[in-house]
């Protein structure tokens, strides 16, 4: 059950101008009642005597009264893409799926607090329309639908992430791509290439136990959550070092690819922290 009282807000910012004519919290591209100076206009073109600039008017060689016009702050679309593939069902000290739900709740609440639009898209090997939350402004987040997502069955692969861009709309959005990012480099590159029209924040949910803290001499069985392939291994020092190296290289690959598309990934390895998400945007 979702505890609405425990949801915490995080603050985000963008490096581009909001294209919505509706007032919001972000720097916009439309003229209006904002604080960012845009240009001078004649009083006839912009009949707003409250913004009359006496000094500029006195220096105007044509003798026109000049007023200041400002850029109105606008709202933006905030969209979350949630990976519901089988690997997201991994659970040890922290549940990946639970952490994902906590992040989505916080994102929805943060968007509502900022006056922004919000949408949720859920994918595995198909797009799960049962959990889809359409893009619009919500006075309060749609907790009932998020509760249904918390009960979702996590299975299959993440192939539908390659197709979700077609449902995000043409307007630039702040997109949170929430997954464990256990993709091949080519697949991750293709996913981000398809989302290039949007400002994508990769949210990587991992668990410390995924790095196989198994003692030397242990005989253990691994199963790929998405393919079902089973393999038995004897943990040796050389194998431990190899697994650790592969995991470290995978993390470096994720960072390298994501940085190429504009933003570094945000890693969640010990539960979601809203303050850490705020620091990500403002550090």
Describe the model.
It is a single chain. The chain has 6 helices and 12 strands. A 6-stranded mixed sheet has the order 7-6-5-8-9-12, with helices on one face. A 3-stranded antiparallel sheet has the order 2-4-3. 30% of the residues are buried. The mean pLDDT is 85. Strand 8, helix 4 and strand 9 (199-205) form a beta-alpha-beta unit. It has 283 residues and is of the alpha/beta class. The chain is elongated.
Task: Tell me the overall shape.
Answer: elongated
Supply the number of helical segments: 6
| Poorly predicted runs of 5 or more residues | none
Query: What is the β-strand count?
Result: 12
Helix/strand/pairing category = alpha/beta
State the end-to-end CA separation. Answer: 34 Å
Strand content: 15-25%
- Main sheet summary: 6 strands, mixed
Element order, helices and strands? Answer: EEEHEEHEEHEHEEEHEH
Arithmetic mean pLDDT = 85
- What is the helix fraction of residues, given as a range? 25-40%
Tell me the radius of gyration: 24 Å
Task: Give the strand order of the largest sheet, numbering strands 1, 2, ... along the chain.
Answer: 7-6-5-8-9-12
């Amino acid at each position: 059950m979702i505890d609405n009282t425990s949801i915490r807000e995080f603050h985000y910012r963008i490096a581009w101008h909001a294209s919505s004519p509706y007032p919001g919290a972000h720097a916009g591209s439309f003229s209006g009642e904002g604080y960012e100076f845009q240009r001078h206009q004649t009083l006839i073109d912009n009949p707003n005597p409250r913004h009359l600039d006496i000094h500029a008017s006195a220096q105007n060689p044509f003798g026109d009264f000049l007023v200041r016009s400002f850029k109105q702050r606008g709202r933006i679309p905030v969209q979350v893409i949630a990976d519901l593939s089988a690997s997201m069902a991994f659970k040890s000290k922290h549940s990946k799926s639970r952490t994902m739900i906590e992040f989505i709740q916080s994102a929805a609440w943060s968007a509502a607090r900022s006056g922004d639009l919000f949408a949720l898209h859920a994918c595995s090997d198909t797009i799960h329309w049962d959990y889809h939350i359409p893009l619009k402004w919500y006075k309060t987040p749609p907790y009932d639908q998020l509760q249904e997502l918390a009960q979702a069955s996590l299975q299959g692969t993440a192939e539908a992430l390659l197709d979700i861009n077609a449902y995000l709309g043409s307007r630039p959005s702040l997109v949170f791509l929430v997954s464990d990012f256990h993709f091949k480099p080519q697949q991750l590159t293709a996913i981000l290439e398809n989302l290039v029209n949007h400002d994508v924040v990769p949210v990587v949910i991992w668990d410390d136990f995924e790095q196989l803290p198994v003692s030397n001499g242990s005989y253990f069985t691994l199963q790929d959550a998405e393919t079902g392939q089973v393999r038995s291994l004897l943990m040796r020092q050389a194998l431990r070092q190899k697994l650790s190296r592969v995991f470290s290289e995978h993390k470096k690959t994720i960072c390298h690819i994501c940085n190429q598309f504009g933003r570094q990934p945000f890693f969640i390895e010990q539960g979601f922290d809203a303050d850490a998400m705020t620091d990500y945007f403002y550090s």
